[in-house]
Amino acid sequence: MKYSMVFAAAAATAVSAGNTGKCDNEGGNFFCTAVKALQYVGLDVAGQYKEVTSMGSDGSCQFADVPFSGPIAPFDEDLSIHLRGPATIEKVAVYTPKANSKRDAPVPHSKRHGHQHLHKRFHEHSHEERAVGDVVHAKIDGQDVSWTNTYDGKGAASPQPAAPAAPAAKAPDVNVASSFVKSEKVASAPKAADSYPATSPKKTDTSNVPAGDYARVGYYDALSGEATGITFLGNYGGSGSGSGVWDTTWGNSLSYLNADGTGGAPSPTVLKGGQIPDAAEIAIFSDKPCTDKTANCGYYRPGTVAYEGFKGADKVFTFKVTMPSNGKKGWNEDMPAIWLLNGKIPRTGQYHDCSCWKSGCGEFDLIETLASGDTKCKSTFHYTNSIGNSDYLQRPTLGYVNYAVIFSKAHASASIKILADDFNHDVGLTSDQVEAMIVDDAKTPGGVSKMAIPV
Asked: Which residues does UniProt assign to the signal peptide (predicted)?
């Protein structure tokens, strides 16, 4: 997304629930196994980052230290959604717990790019250990089984229950993440861009949210042109865009995005047909504008278009997206990506040094191609301690795929998971639905790549 950065010196422990197999070096980036899910665990590391407090016309930038701690911090702060084409997004949804929802108690834990960096380090994989006495639950061939663990990692393991007999089946092309994931199928081609309406976004209305522990607080449907609880922005501020500001020192601020996703607009619009042009980048924030009284929006230049992102330690982002390849080879061409940023970064400046990015306020690369035309998508987790993953998700070039990104306070984890083809990005989600999306060894016996955040 922006700067080149070196991995934290501390070695990370990589744990895989499946066989990661052979890893290949392709253009300086390691690619191991195609998986259906990725998870980052141990997100309860305390630290601090430097927040921008002023931006001078002479190019000076002032900072203040901001400490953070607790599960998910600083990713519990507001996050903005960023996408780069070529891509078509049919649906985007954001969910957060309802005020009266029942939440599980937290469990203890032990303790940019040029969007082309960070992924040049390979991490060995090992299996996660369970403590003696832990009751282990698993679903084996559709049947729930459990046993008490007596293996301490030093001697021979105690026998485990035999898996129920099952007929032989052809191995899938990639590891299957869980029974929640159905086989991929090619979706129908999107409508022509000019058949979609381009209207103004609607305000969030949670007064009549259907039953569910998580309310849908942001939603975009390209087929209907509905955009509720969200605002489309881009780095196009200044003359000609009709919104935001530009100067020779700091360049373009955020502006409203035009319906084609190619420039600025004087007022909020809705992205037309979900189509993001090749190499173009768009941002999605909430519909809540920052004001002088808004907590935690941080500093931003006078005149810029500033909105809050999506807050909370527990939150879910879902996407229905396709990323067809066009064969182009220029800078950032045919290199689609989806990532999340601490909202303070784009509100000051996504692509210059006067932001909190370098000091680790938070970026999560969800799906990122590292070379033009690549069909393998990597993931990287940036903050005080950064880590990348050498397992990868297949780029959805032939049809739409549903993805979920789940931040969980109770698990102190962030997960990326391919969802079933019929996932409908409904108005609400139950806690059980969200829990089923969270990747762990018991629920997902294969196709998961798990990375521990270095401490």
From this structure: 1-17
Given a cut of 70, the residues of the chain with pLDDT beneath it are: 1-21, 100-200, 203-212, 293-295, 385, 440-448, 452-455
The tens digit of pLDDT for each residue in 180-198 reads 222 233 333 334 333 334 4
pTM: 0.76
Segment 324-378, tens digit of pLDDT: 999 999 999 999 999 999 999 999 999 999 999 999 999 999 999 999 999 999 9
Nearest to 415 by CA among 84, 75, 77, 127: 75
Identify the burial level of 194 via C-beta atoms within 10 angstroms of its C-beta, where 0-12 means exposed, 13-18 middle and 19 or more buried.
Answer: exposed
Work out the number of other CB atoms within 10 angstroms of the CB of residue 237: 26
Neighbours of 118 (CB within 10 A): 25
What are the structural domain ranges in the chain?
14-126+171-452
